UniProtKB/TrEMBL annotation, chain A:
Organism: Cellulomonas edaphi
TM annotation in the entry: 26-47, 81-99, 111-131, 137-157, 164-186, 216-234, 254-281, 317-339
Protein name: Iron chelate uptake ABC transporter family permease subunit
Membrane-topology annotation of the record: Multi-pass membrane protein
InterPro entries: ABC_BtuC-like, ABC_transptr_permease_BtuC
Family membership: Belongs to the binding-protein-dependent transport system permease family. FecCD subfamily.
TrEMBL record, chain B:
Cell location: Cell membrane
The species this protein was found in: Cellulomonas edaphi
Keywords noted in UniProt: Cell membrane, Membrane, Transmembrane, Transmembrane helix, Transport
InterPro entries in UniProt: ABC_BtuC-like (IPR037294), ABC_transptr_permease_BtuC (IPR000522)
Similarity-based family: Belongs to the binding-protein-dependent transport system permease family. FecCD subfamily.
Membrane-spanning ranges: 21-46, 75-95, 107-128, 134-153, 165-186, 206-232, 253-275, 295-318, 325-342
Membrane topology, from the record: Multi-pass membrane protein
Gene3D superfamilies assigned: ABC transporter involved in vitamin B12 uptake, BtuC
Name of the protein this chain belongs to: Iron chelate uptake ABC transporter family permease subunit
Length: 345, 349
């Protein structure tokens, strides 16, 4: 028996009572994105101040290259590349979760004040306490972001944290924190304030293996949770009552999803600074590429990775913060997608 | 929009004030509060001036030192606060009603990003540094980018629906913001200048500057009152709105024109003051319920009060003028918004 879902779907039945239904277009888009990430990865490993050939890159990766190529590729360029991929995935998933949660295309971890909170944490560490060490800033931003998110959730909680109330409280708290940040930065001399602003723009330039190891462990630990929450979260989009009738515990799913989204986003802002726009735009681009009805976390994650890797390649060449290129490139691509979509409809 | 759409929708049909009489009374009270705040704004500052002297100076008692403080500094500042505040409040109400999105603020159509990149250009490449110098850059930049957002949002045969415009605005604002930041992060002085502009301020603007921007804002306010009624119908969705006699096309276009005039004017006058346009319509909606014909005047008066009170508080805390109004608004309005959000009958859109 087959059900017409209105779009090409492949069904895989390994056993009589088990079947997996996959959307063909989503799979195709996912594979194309994966290929793009791979190609860009090679480009980002080969190009730079010293250019390497494809053979040298492969040689260095497999351990057969010379010392110079090994240093360039494995020690310098690879961690940055892996960070770009990991941050892209984490941000896209965070955005996808929050857009489901708030049922708002503008939804992103920003909504509950996460970015303003991490920024405030970094501002306090650098300008008030007076440390510019990487680990201090990272820790400050992590604590700032998590505290803010917790504060917003608690303030918005009243027999359940409704999406709408979460948004409003998030707006208020984020606005207060942004004011605080701007005030502290205006009192400083521009040179010091610019360090914070550059951090706030998001950069992958100074990251190495010592940061990559904890980052990857945390990311890999969080991914199964995201997979686990994907289905109940999609059901929650139909409304609390409909979801409850399917056996979904609405409030518990919402709390879990909020924590997970915050964890993904704060992981990135601790490592690279708040790269805000990817979370917002990656799920939107993925939704348009795969033309799925609901959220598609896997395609979103791949979109995020492709977006951040390509932005980082450009950022390396222009010597500007990765976050700024991400915003510009991602924004332009999104505008192009929108125009194309609107033309067709 | 909301997770409990059904219950929110039901609660949204009513505000705190149910009848037209209570709402009119509330509006009169709000205007009285605004008048009192205006007087306070002229009295309070680095040098406080007693109410009697304020009255005397207003009635033409010349020659005193207070007279020049009042006419050259305090009154322009107060008037800029009222005009920019009203513009921001109404603009926020319009844009939230239009996009049916509680996260929408006056900057959503790219107004702030447009003004921002125009001023970055003016300061970085033309060396202009005073508000009087770059005010037209800001206004033109805001208008051009809003038109651009509208063009992207209305590409293709269909109409420019709220969601299309919102996404187009967010994307374009992100691109322009990224480019502005790339320019400003190269030069510490430019960075400091843009940081201070981005906070927003109502001090140091002359009456003639206000006079040249006010007509645009006035036209914007008039259009806002005109579209209030059709916007009510459109809130029910396009099809239902059309069946109630609202003409979606003209209403949409007029709303965009009003938003451009109001937000562009306010941003040119006072910089991109965040949060006022976002917060005040929410507060107004809680009081009046979802009728735009009430939300719009309430937002105008409420935003002017918020802006002036914030400016006065900033002056009292730091008389040096370091605490710009844009920094205080969030701390004055934020707790109010949270308290309102925690009430049981949260009024949705």
């Amino acid at each position: 028996m087959s059900v017409d879902l209105g779009r090409p779907v492949a069904v895989w039945r390994p056993r009589p009572r088990t079947s997996l239904r996959v959307d063909r277009r989503a799979v195709a888009v996912g594979l194309v994105l994966l290929a793009i990430v791979c190609v860009l990865a090679v480009v980002s490993l080969a190009y730079g101040t010293y250019q390497l050939s494809l053979g040298e890159v492969v040689g260095a990766l497999t351990g057969n290259g010379d010392r110079r190529a090994h240093t360039l590729v494995v020690e310098w360029r690879l961690p940055r590349l892996l960070f770009a991929i990991g941050c892209g995935i984490a941000l896209a998933l965070a955005g996808s979760i929050f857009q489901s949660l708030t049922r708002n295309p503008l939804g992103s971890p920003d909504v509950i004040g996460l970015d303003a909170g991490s920024y405030a944490g970094a501002v306090i560490v650098t300008l008030v306490i007076g440390s510019t060490a990487y680990t201090d800033i990272a820790l400050g931003s992590l604590v700032g972001g998590l505290l803010t998110a917790a504060l917003v959730y608690v303030l918005a909680y009243r027999r359940g944290a409704q999406g709408f109330r979460l948004i409003i409280v998030g707006i208020a708290v984020a606005a207060m924190l942004s004011s605080f940040n701007a005030y502290v930065m205006m009192r400083e001399d521009p040179q010091t304030a610019m360090i914070v602003a550059a951090w706030g723009a998001g950069s992958l330039a100074s990251l190495g293996y010592s940061q990559l190891v904890p980052f990857s462990i945390a990311l890999v630990a969080l991914l199964p949770l995201a997979a686990l929450l994907a289905r109940p979260l999609a059901q929650l989009e139909l409304g609390d009552d409909a979801a409850r009738s399917q056996g979904v515990h609405a409030e518990r799913v919402r709390l879990g999803a909020t924590i997970l989204g915050v964890a993904f986003a704060s992981l990135v802002s601790a490592a690279a600074g708040p790269i805000a726009f990817v979370a917002l735009v990656a799920p939107q681009i993925a939704h348009r590429l795969a033309r799925t009805a609901g959220p598609s976390p896997v395609v979103s994650a791949l979109t995020g990775a492709a977006l951040l890797v390509s932005a980082d390649v450009v950022a390396q060449h222009l010597a500007v913060a990765t976050g700024l290129v991400t915003v510009t490139l991602g924004g332009l691509y999104f505008i192009w997608l929108l125009i194309r979509e609107y033309r067709r409809s | 929009m909301t997770t409990n759409a059904g219950t929110d929708r039901a609660a949204a049909t009513r505000g705190v004030a149910r009848g037209a009489f209570v709402r009119s009374l509330g509006l009169v009270a709000a205007v009285a509060v605004l008048a009192a705040v205006c007087v306070l704004s002229v009295m309070i500052g680095a040098k406080s001036i007693p109410a009697g002297d304020v009255l005397r100076a207003l009635l033409g008692g010349e020659g005193t030192h207070d007279h020049s403080v009042i006419w050259d500094l305090r009154i322009p500042r107060t008037l800029v606060g009222v005009v920019a505040g009203a513009a921001l409040g109404v603009c926020g109400a319009l844009i939230q009603a239009y996009t049916r999105n509680p996260l929408a603020d006056p900057g959503i159509l790219g107004v702030n990003a447009g003004a921002g990149i125009a001023i970055t250009t003016a300061v970085a490449f033309f060396g202009l540094t005073s508000p009087a110098g770059y005010v037209w850059f800001a206004f033109v930049g805001a208008a051009v980018v809003t038109v651009l957002v509208y063009l992207v949002g209305s590409a293709g045969p269909g109409q420019a629906t709220p969601e299309k415009l919102t996404l187009a605005g967010v994307a374009l604002a992100a691109v322009l913001g990224g480019i502005s930041q790339m320019i400003t992060l190269r030069d510490p002085n430019l960075f400091a200048g843009m940081l201070s502009w981005s906070v927003g301020s109502i001090g140091g603007r002359s009456l003639s500057l206000l006079g040249s921007i006010a007509p645009f804002i006035g036209v914007g306010l008039l259009i806002a009152l005109l579209v209030a009624r059709p916007l009510n119908a459109l809130a029910l969705g396009d099809d239902l709105g059309r069946s109630l006699g609202a003409r979606t096309g003209p209403t949409r276009t007029l709303t965009i024109v009003a938003v451009t005039l109001l937000a562009g004017g306010a941003t040119a006058l006072a910089g991109p003051i965040a949060f006022v346009g976002l917060m005040v319509p929410h507060a107004a909606r809680w009081f009046t319920g979802p009728d735009q014909r009430w939300i719009i005047p309430y937002s105008a008066v409420g935003a002017a009060i918020l802006l002036l009170v914030s400016d006065i508080i900033g002056r009292v805390i730091l008389p040096s003028g370091e605490l710009r109004v844009g920094l205080v608004t969030a701390f004055v309005g934020g707790p109010v918004l949270i308290a309102l959000a925690r009430r049981r009958t949260a009024s949705g859109l």
